[in-house]
Amino acid sequence: MPSKKALVRRPSPRLAEGLVTHLERERVDAGRAVEQWEAYTEALRAHGWETIEVDPADDCPDSVFVEDTVVMYRNVALIARSGAGSRRAETPGVEEAVASLGCSVNWVWEPGTLDGGDVLKVGDTVYVGRGGRTNAAGVQQVRAAFEPLGARVVAVPVAKVLHLKSAVTALPDGTVVGHIPHMDAPSLFPRFLPVPEPSGAHVVLLGGDRLLMASSAPKTAELFADLGYEPVPVDIGEFEKLEGCVTCLSVRLRELYA
Ligand SMILES: NC(=O)NCCC[C@H](N)C(=O)O
Q1: Is the model's pTM score more than 0.90?
Q2: Is the confidence metric ipTM above 0.90 for this complex?
Q3: Where do the catalytic residues lie (predicted)?
Q4: Is the beta carbon of 242 within 6 A of some atom in ligand 1?
Q5: C-alpha radius of gyration, the chain, whole number
Q6: CB 3.0–4.6 Å: which of 134, 205, 216, 257 could bond 118 by disulfide?
Q7: What is the Cα 254 distance to its own chain's centre?
């Protein structure tokens, strides 16, 4: 059944210790991060999403990036196993949350690694980034979990950025949008639109023509507005310092079986 619930997770007091891989470390203002997170969750609610807070994981600096812990396909939740060992303690709270919402729960097992940020769904096509956080066994396990449900899994090499969705996401009509300097294999996407800013590659589909985007991508917002979309900008600057983006701060549950 269609649903509009979104998992979110309050930032850890240790957020500033979050991992940084492709960026220079910058000082993170924890208070400002909480304000930005509250505004982000409010933007989801203002557009009809019920936000569900996963129990906080205060000892895990990166736990606010809840997208990385679970991948949803229909009613099935595939609990991730991060390629970053320090992030693995984030999953138990998420398991509980999805199970209590009635999802069927499955797990990525050793030797597989997978971060949810590496998974982009466009209709029944599931693109999986094979990169620093997701290995070949992780890709195989996504195939095993979702292809029997009707998905077609396409593996995409990712070397220049943290996750596949650091480089590409998709518009409501299925057009993949991406920042070409951050992409390794643009030709894998059949309908592709380049965007001028790195964070312009990140959209969360709020419903209808509305796109939640980072306010750090004003030129891309103009481009999307000119295509008939309604950008909804949010400032997530403190999370961007830690390689976060708008997608990674929530997991939308659109097809719960309830
Ligand atoms: N899906 C995402 O874009 N996640 C961002 C994770 C950032 C975090 N500092 C990490 O390196 O794991």
Answers
A1: yes
A2: yes
A3: 163 (proton donor), 248 (nucleophile)
A4: yes
A5: 17
A6: 134
A7: 14
